[in-house]
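Quick note —
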Amino acid sequence: MKTINSILSTAIVTVICAWLTTGCTKKLEEDPRANLTPGSYFTSQTDLDAAVAGMYVAIARDGSWGFTSKMTSYFGSDDLTTDPALNKGDMREFDRLVGSSSNGSLPNQWVGPWVGIYNANNIIANYSKVPALDPASIAAKNESAGNAYFIRALSYYYLVRTFGPVPIVLTPVEEVSTSYPRSSVDSVYQAIISDLQKAKTMLTTTKKQGKPNVYAVSAILSDVYLTMAGWPLNKTANYALAAAEADFVIQNGRYDTNTPYDKVFSTNNCSESIFALQYSVGGNLPNRSFGSTSIPLEELALNGNSGWDDFYPEINFFKAAPVCTRTDLTFHTTIKIRNADKVTYTLVPWNSPATHAQHPYYEKFRAGLNGDGVNETANTIIDMQPSTNKETIIIRYPQVLLNYAEASAMAGGGPTTQGYAAINQVRARAGEAPLTPALGQIAFRDAVVFERAYECAGEFGVRWFDIVRLQLLPQVSASRDATENPIPAGTDFSKKYLAPIPLSEFSVNPSWTQNPGY
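Predicted structure written out below.
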């Protein structure tokens, strides 16, 4: 595996400082301790802490999960589209369901998780070498390993959902020419579950910014089991397992939906953030998934910076949104066009001929952390930056509630009282009335899937993964507005649920077979 193994042999993983938990902005510098040489590296908990921090940097950076490119192959979803021209070809390919293995942004989705996996493998293989003679030091060492098991599982979870069968590599690799076979989807999921179950025995119940706890593990496990109950495995017995893991988080009472919806996306470590990647512009680890990226091209700030026009929702996805306060806080529908005087602005609706794309955009991704992305008033854009300190939330409490609602209904004969309570908690915060009572099993499931689409609109593959596991591409594509980037006639939707393996991998793995349809 050329790309994967070259990562292992050449990458210097930058060590992140204490901002992972305290928010400092000291410049991140290379540290040779992150080169995890088996047999000679770990001598203290400080070394282990540095290795764990470096693992988080590896997956959080731009080129992995720090930019919109982490979602390139998910643009077949209705909550994501992009410009019909400009320099958006990589995302536009997948928006049109014609993505290719030579797509320039696709390697970010492949390489990023593998860097996390190899860093985790080295920690897991070597953490026991750290001396620990008392309960506190033993617990600290085990928690470091728990972080590694968690990140390895999370990385594989994104890989298997995106690319299907992938190699299972659970030990450090030293030979860059080594090739591994692609393992079955079911085998990958078993490895994921094993890692998450191991992580749960090593982590604590304490909520720590940027680090998982046992509830984060259960939240991800619930999502894993729910996904396994759908395509391609269709292990419907896993619905009950998904409900149980979600219920464990719910019953604990550690998280809630009391944070106003817009504040979830403009603050860090809010009451519903269960696990999130942390960022620091001053520490040379910016998050570029907020700020400029979902801003119209023609929106120009007083400081001269303009929007990048990278992604926004499809027109009919926006039009189908429920009428509620969450919808108002999710979508940006009034475009601010700076006048010739470079001081005042004219406000026009999203579908005005004066706009470039004639689409709504995402309001929820504009501000970044307390306005370090887009700083604006109702009538003026003061400043606009592409790099923010905003965390990327991987899993949050409303997802757990919705997972429980769906899984509990599908595990039995239909929706339960507790399932209704879970989805209605999400709807209440959104400003919606309680869900229609006495729905049948499938109608209730569809209502939950619809709710998740708008609760998590535009968020790191959430909607796309629902489309995949429930095989919804024919319906989603049929509902597209005629002005969207066109999908070629005769497209075989059944072959578009997986992304192609990047072309570069086949130079070292000639025995691999490309995913069907590519």
